[in-house]
Specification:
By secondary structure, the protein is an all-alpha fold. The protein is built from 6 helices and no strands. Helices cover 79% and strands 0% of the residues. The chain starts with a helix and ends with a helix.
Length: 103
């Protein structure tokens, strides 16, 4: 799994370098970094995705997760709420509603 994540990071980083306007690639990189426990790097990629496309809903999940990990509950809450505005029935919606109740 760890080797696979590194492959994803290398491949997607190269793809992003050649297509720097791809929010989708930035979100994949954010998810991969977040899954590896690297919140700061996940935040960086997620913010790049949002800068390219403010409606990249999944990016807000990783922004919120990074903010929550850093103890910034208000910023996490805002990111999660933005996700729910963009994707009220998205794959993370049910989990984020539960998280919001605990923040």
């Amino acid at each position: 799994q760890q080797h696979r994540a590194k492959d994803v990071l290398v491949t997607c980083s190269q793809a992003f370098a050649t297509t720097p306007q791809s929010a989708d690639i930035a979100v994949i990189l954010a998810r991969t970094e977040f899954d590896r426990g690297r919140s700061s790097q996940a935040m960086t990629w997620a913010k790049k995705a949002v800068a390219i496309n403010p409606d990249a809903s999944d990016a807000y999940v990783f922004i919120g997760g990074a903010e929550q990990s850093a103890g910034h509950s208000q910023a996490a809450k805002a990111a999660y709420q933005r996700y729910l505005q963009l994707a009220p029935r998205g794959r993370y919606a049910t989990d984020l509603r539960a998280v919001l109740k605990s923040l």
